[in-house]
Amino acid sequence: MEIRTKDDAWRLLLVLFLGQLVAFSMAACSFASSFIANLGVDAPLAQSFCTHLLLTLVYVPILLRRRQKLRIPWYWYLVLAFVDVQGNYLVTEAYQYSSITSVTLLDCWTVVWAIILTWYALGTRYSFWQFLGAGTCVAGLALVLLSDANTPDAQDPNKIPLLGDALVIAGTVCYAFSNVGEEHCVKKNDRVEVVAMLGLFGVLVSTIQISLFAGYGIAGFMFYTITPFVLEMSGATLLNLSLLTSDMWAVAIRVFFYQQQINWLYYLAFAVVAIGLIIYSLNESSSADATATSTEAAAHYEQLPGEDNSTGSGSILDRKERKQQEAHIC
């Protein structure tokens, strides 16, 4: 009994120690996210990508060395990773609008959602005192919301504390689903497999979402690459006239991608703008040819200063010779 008691005591101390390591790592993540937000950088998906990439690089090789089949179907890991990535995105984005203290306190909403999910999904039962403690936490979190609503952030007036609080609460729902799913997988299956698949599919989900945002970067790259050619071949006026049709391309995207109906005047406007571009382009070519012709003619008939001087000096010499001849005759 004494040995068992000592083992239980050491186990309890180990769990508490590991729990504090988890808490410290979460605080470090919160500090990093808050610091990045204060620098004006908004990249929650990139931060989540780095986390899942490290998990993939460390645990996937271990899983591959075992050469074992997955104990849980891969699509469950995909769902779990998707929910986890969304939770990380929402909570990390909340630092753009709220303070680090509000985000870390409201993060405790995960406890409430986890209790509800484990009660219905895993069949876990809780005592009256556990529900009382959870209710007390909710009361304290309500005070955080009240504080953010009544006292706007004086350090940065551009922040919107209530929006940040809403993002945190939405993120805690995702965290609760992720934590409960991980609990089920870890207790029923292998821990390394869970972490490896969570990291691998987390990288996949983050990459897909980042690629959607990268589409803007690719489009901007095309814009700045092609614009100099248009300016060199035509000019700024034609460029800005061409940019008018970007609204029409937006109409096409609305019709074919969003499946929305468009008023017929949009199509008429597109045709009118296209006709205007053609008229301007043709007249610009004609004016450019006329300018080039006039410039060439002016260069052809232009007299050099040296030629004028030589002609003038020659005429003076001729007059002197005539005067000498007339004086000789006399």
Automatic annotation (TrEMBL):
Bilayer disposition of the protein: Multi-pass membrane protein
Basic and acidic residues biased stretches: 317-330
GO CC entries: membrane
Compartments in which it is found: Membrane
Stretches that traverse the bilayer: 12-37, 43-62, 74-91, 97-121, 128-147, 159-177, 198-226, 264-282
GO molecular function annotations of the record: transmembrane transporter activity
Region (Disordered): 301-330
Keyword match Mitochondrion: no
Keyword terms of this UniProt record: Membrane, Transmembrane, Transmembrane helix, Transport
A Pfam short name: SLC35F
Entry annotated with the keyword Transport: yes
Source species, domain of life: Eukaryota
Family: Belongs to the SLC35F solute transporter family.
Protein name: Solute carrier family 35 member F1
Annotated organism of origin: Aegilops tauschii subsp. strangulata
